[in-house]
Amino acid sequence: MTIVTLFMVTENIIATENNSFNYSVDRFADIEIIRYQVPGFDNLPLQQKELIYFLSEASHVGRDILFDQNCKWNLSIRRSLEAIFENYKGNKKIADYIAFEEYLKLVWYNNGIHHDYSSDKILPNFKESFFVEQINNINSSQLPLSKGQSKTDFLKTILPIIFNPTILPKRVNQAEGEDLVTTSANNYYDGVSQAEAEEFYSKMKDSTDNTPISYGLNSRLIKENGIIVEKVWKVGGMYSTAIEKIIYWLEKAVSVAENPQQKLAIEKLISFYKTGNLKEYDEYSVLWVKDLDSNVDFVNGFTESYGDPLGLKGSWEANVNFTNVEATKRTKLISDNAQWFENHSPVDPRFKKEVVKGVSAKVITVAALGGDCYPSTPIGINLPNSNWIRRDHGSKSVTIENITEAYDKASLGNGFLDEFVWSDEERNRMKKYGFQTDNLHTDLHECLGHGSGKLLSDTDPDALKAYGSPMEEARADLFALYYMGDSKIVELGLLPNDEAYKAEYYKYVMNGLLTQLTRIKPGRSIEQAHMRNRSLIARWLLEKGNAQNVIELKIRDGKTFVVINDYVKMRELIGQLLAEVQRIKSEGDWNSAKEMIETYAVKVDATLHNEILLRYSKLNIAPFRGFVNPVMNPLLNVNGKIVDIQITYNEGYSEQMLRYSKSYNTLPAINK
Ligand code: ZN
Question: How far is the CA of 119 from the centre of ligand 1 (A)?
Answer without folding.
Answer: 19
